[in-house]
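Comment thread on ticket #2218

A.B. wrote:
> Attaching the input chain for the structure job we discussed in standup.
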Amino acid sequence: MSQRLPPLLPEPRRVDLRAGHLGVSAQTPVVLAAGSDDGDLATARLLADGLAARAGGRPPIESHARSADLGPRLELRRAGRSGDGYRIDASAEKVVLEGDGPAGLRYAVQTLLQLADARGRIPACRIEDAPDFPLRGLMLDVSRGKVPTLACLEELVDRCALLKLNVLMLYVEHPFRFRRHPEIGADASPLDAETLRQLDAYAAARHVQLVPSLQSLGHMEHVLALPRYAGLAESDARWSLAPVDPGSYALLEDLYDEYLPNFRSAWFNANCDEPWDLGYGRSKERAQEIGRGGVFLEHVRKVRDLAAKHGRRTLVWADVVHTHPDRVPEIDRDLVLLDWWYEADHDYDRVKVFAENGLDFWVCPGTSSWNCLFPRMENALANISGYADAGRRHGAGGFLVTDWGDFGHYNLLGNSWLGFAWAGQHAWSGDAPAARFDRAFTRLFFGDASGEAARLFRRLGAVHDAGFSVPNASALQFLYFDDLDDARFLEAAREGALTRSERRLERVRAELADTRARFGDDGLTWEELVYAADASLLAVRKARAARTWMAWRRGRTKLAAPARRGLARSLRVLADEQAALGRTLRRLWLRRSRPSNFELTRRRLDASLRSLRRAARALERNRPPAPPPNERGVDVGAAFRALAAVARGES
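C.D. wrote:
> Ran it. Output below, let me know if you need it in another format.
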């Protein structure tokens, strides 16, 4: 694309630049074609409102049987009733915007608003554009502790529309107010039917489908922990529903009957992922007869039939399918598989097995924001581009970027904006030069074309090194929450890595302090980045102090009284700073979300604070506690099991 045009997000597929420009003023009419409907009028209003400040006033919206004698004008027309493709033909005399359907016309307007400069001048050009994937969207986890407010969800719809994403999913395990099952989600600030219907209507007006998503097999621990439903569990783990229990389907039918009518979308994500105990509990005998893969297929068929009563086509995650490749030919063709994996180093082409078997599928990367104080940006961007490339090669019908909240969802939403924008670019037209993308992102989100805010996202998101790694997570997050009594992660950290990360974080933090203006009116996102930088710095400094503390406990380092008192003071200061960061996190949390289950994160913070203060007291008394075992290493499975126990309030 010519550098004479401003950076656009997502970049159009084809642009031909011409000489000249059209200057838009408050007298330049926005002309709706004859036969335009109310949706087209809304799109025309979007254009007029978007140009008002730049044109010295809001251009009028008009309709005319003929337009040739109107002088300079902006003409809006549709070629048909559906389609996301569009064309812009701009000259010094007029601009014609044509969409294949209502969504395409809106996308044409959104691109035109990015083309117009601060004085309302639109460069002469010809743009022909259409997306790579017909369905392009994002999924936000609202089940791991954080339920957004309606205002936040509407803002998320607006972000989707800006990025030409046409699908939004809210991942729900339990936070919905079911009248027939009021215990489910009662303590989680649950969404209700009116909120979902409002959001559904708001999204539809912006050509975004709100696709219902309700967990229907694994990840059912919140429901199965309730006495009324415990008998439906597959095993004592109370993780998955038991497929051999008819009561499981009676419950799902009840939930679907109440949940699905709140959405107009013809899709339904039943999830059904990670049923770890499936076939090892009550369905063990059935699994011995037909295999665990067979038990899974039986279940998703029953789920599909329940959803079909509501006119929905069912999507399920594909992780179980990949563990039973011999069963792929048996999968019903009316199911849609959602293929996910969140590490950059991945065989993205594995989706070809679905194409080879005539199965519809979507590709589903992630923002790498969960189990992190700030997203692992390099991993996320590579994961998104890798899945998009594979989806194009093998004919994926959809692209869905996921934003999870494992073990408390303390990652803040604004930290994911760059990942969402990168997903919008790749879902629409593929890769874009990083520098140009960064400028387009900051111009679209913050009104600043320098790209500096995007570079801060990248620089902060590149610092996760502590001398050890954990899959699907940032080491700094584990340091931040680790208990000094056990210090499994703190002791695994390495001084050289900590020193390097501290220096890099200090530089980013200083840059953030100097670049508040680059975020324009979006001070909240800037505050969220500042919080993430401060929390990351505390994690590193806590680890450096904890290494000395652990060496003292193990008798490897003898500390004289002044050194012990100094280390005790440092630990108390760290505790005070972490407590203050906890208050900041809650304040920022409540800017976008309901109180929800903030206590999940509060428990982890409190455990860290108590351990810092206990360690300080032990140093002051010169009484080192008995150390944990030597050479334990980082046991990833044990770490995540411990986090799950904290989430359940068991420690």
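A.B. wrote:
> Thanks. Noting for the ticket: The chain has 20 helices and 15 strands.
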